[in-house]
Structure formats: C-alpha cells, structure tokens
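note to self — DONT lose this again. spent like an hour looking for the file last time. sequence + predicted structure for the chain T wanted, 389 res
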Amino acid sequence: MTIEKKTKVLFVIDQISSPYAGTEGQLLNLITNLPADQFLPELLVLRPSTYVESGKMPCKTEVLGASKLFSIKTWLAMFRFARRKKKEGVALCHVFFNDSSVICPPVFSLVGIPTVISRRDMGYWYTGRYLRALRLTARFVRGVVANSEAVKQVTAEKEGYSASRISVIYNGYPVPEGDSSPLPPSERPAVLSALGLPISGQFVVLVANLREIKRIGDAINAVAIVAKSIPDSHLVLIGGGDQEPYRVLAESLGAGDHVHFLGVRSDVRDILRVMDAGLLCSESEGYSNAIVEYMQARLPVVASDVGGNAEAIEHGVTGYLFPRGYVRQLATCLEDLLKDKDGRAKAMGEAGFQKASRRHDLTTMIESHADLYWRVLSNRVGLPDMEVW
C-alpha cells in the first residue's frame, strides 16, 4: 500500500491516572509505536488527571471537560469536538473504556469518522443501563478489539456483536531492557534489603491495585497457611489502594510478618528478579498484564481460573490455575512451587518466558492494530459506509 500522507487516528479514553495501569499502558504503547510514516495519533481524554496535566503524553492530547455519560452537555461537547476533528482530517477513532464506548460511535458516525472500540475485561462493570446503551450504539461500531478469546466471547454475548466483528489482539510488550532473568542468590540480599524485605526467604509477588475484584484477601489467607509449612515464605503486594484493611487481616491471621506492601512502583520488573513466584487471585480478568510480566521474568505463575487467565497459563506447564476463591487449593499450589523439590518451578518459569516471547511481541500487537485500521478504512470490516452529516 502506498501511503501518500499520514492517516490521523484519534484515540479516546475516559481517563488516564497512571501509565502503569493495564489498559492505559497498552494504549500508550500503541500510540507510541504506531508506524510514524503511516499514522499520526491524537488523544482525547474525557476527564482530566494529574498525569495528563503533567505534559508527559506521547502525542497531542485534549481533555473534553464535560464527562457525565448521560448528560446532554457531554454529548453536545463531543459532537462539536468530533465535527472539528473531521475538519482537521481525522480518519478513524479508536475508543477505550466504558463511557467513551457509548458516546463516541454514534457521535463520530454523524460526522463520517468510523469508530473501533476495545474490550479488555470480562464486563464486571456492566449494568443494565450500560448494556442497554451499548446495544443501542453498537450499530455504529465498525470494529471491536478484544485482548483474549474469553473477552471476545463475553463481549459478543453481552453486547450483541457477531464474532466476525471482533478481532482478538493480545497485549504487546517491548522487549525488557537488559537481563530480566532471576538474580543469582549472591545478589538477592542487597536488592531485598533496599526494598525493606527480609534478605532471605521465599517470595510470592502479587502485582495489582488493592481492590476487591483482585481478591487480595485470598492471597493473604493463603500465605498464612503456607507459612505454617514454609516459615520463610512471604507475600509481596505491589499496587495502589488502601492497605489498612489488608494489614489488619494479615495481623489477625498471625501473618503480619509475612505480608509486605510496596505500594505503587515504577521498577516492577527489577523487583520481579528477586521473587520466586507470581500470583493473581482475581474475581475477574480479561487478560492480565501482571501475568505477562511474571512470565517475562521467568516466574512460575499461580492464578485464579477466570477469564483469559487460562489462555495465558498452561496448567502444570507454565504454572497453576485454581478455582476462584478456593484458598486451600491456592495455598497447595504455592507450597508446591516454593518447595520446588524437582526443579519444576524453574522449568515452569522458563516455559512461561518462551510463551510470552511468542505471543506478546510488541511488534505483532502494533501490526495487528495497523492492519485492522486499514481494513476499517477500506470498509472490509464492520458496517457499510454511513451517511456523512
């Protein structure tokens, strides 16, 4: 295909609070790595945030200002914005998150800009009101991106899309800079001490914000069980949120010395090099960024068997899956990995690394999106061209 000029693509998202969150991180990766000779990205954010206002965004960024989904003011503001972007030559809109997925497809179709939406979770946020709105506006959507087969299935079922309109594009990640493999035993104590952790022991890491949907309490209950048979076992929690209720839980279980809170970190990959296993206990997952990070660090993974986790983890090969909420079974999986009598944990970590390297190549993710954009623009997916107002 001969590209005479760059195609302007507008990305829209409800809010960006941190570049390290899953969806936000993938969006920023996409914007940053789209072929610069083909695409000119811009970004619209419905609601302001400290991060957006910091000036660190990778492309031209605007904030809509009006952001209440069911407010006429918001819809009018979006229509005016869309009309301006049409005049400025924007050819395609790609939408992330909930409110933007309702507003943008019908509004942008009015001005002749086709819209692609992304789905990256199992719809835990669906309500009757949202679903009614999404089903009404789905007719204006020209393509849907899901980041796992599980997400594709739930999106088709709940929002009424045919399977042919949903493209599965797995998350993509840049090749980690430097060596990301586990540190040798001689180098671990200094790193662990700098993190405020015991300088020796067995460490299970859980990277997730401290929210109910992540079932952090299950992890704490499990490590309290594991600590009885493996006294030097520890749970390391990385992520933002209210720590107090989880600290109270750990103390009540007698596991206060075994649970460590590191908060939000920008050096997660370095921390993973001194961990022994990765953990995710979530109630719901589309396709976890944390699991991929664990695999890239050659950690065996234990995760709840929900959503796309079974696509990421091959049970008994790259880690273990356990039924959501079954703490005793979770503890058994952790004990098996931490004892690691036959080198199984190391083999699982290596198998996971190989799988992540194949599936989650950043170039593949970028090329898949670019291909979808060209197919939408050439009208080979989605709905027929709509009348331009």
